[in-house]
Amino acid sequence: HNPARHNREPSRAMATEGAVTHCQVEEDFIKALEAAGDSRLIIVMFAATWCQPSIAVMESYHQLAAERTDCLFVTADIDENTVISERYKIDSVPTYILLLDKEVKATVVGANLDKVRDSIHDALNPKEDLGI
Question: Which partner for 98 in 69, 83, 106, 122 could form a disulfide, CB atoms 3.0-4.6 Å apart?
């Protein structure tokens, strides 16, 4: 029995709220991508604490995450994660990026979770290339 082990503070960096992981720093984002692997769809919601649409849609985003357990849902605050925001060229919030095999499969700008749902479906069910 090691008393020091029980007194350790929980990590502030990456917080998991239900089915959504909040990445506060770039390292958390990288860990989340690695944890998902190449075959799991990752939905990243770029948001901001000062953005009313981001705040308004957050509960519904968490509900979507609870429904789609086959996907990894992540949030990233653009003010906390400037490197990631710049990498994905986030100009407005909320913006959703869907990643599969570390490639962007779709981008949805605005608080439109119906479009996010459609994009998830499309990313996981690619249309056959009929031009062969």
Answer: 106
Mean pLDDT in residue range 33-59: 91
Please tell me the distance from the alpha carbon of residue 130 to that of residue 107, in angstroms, as a whole number.
24
Q: How far apart are the first and last CA of the chain?
A: 64
pLDDT in tens, 96-126: 999 998 889 999 999 999 999 999 999 999 8
| Residues pairing with 76 in the sheet | 23, 46
CA distance 124 to 40: 9
Q: What pTM did the predictor assign?
A: 0.81
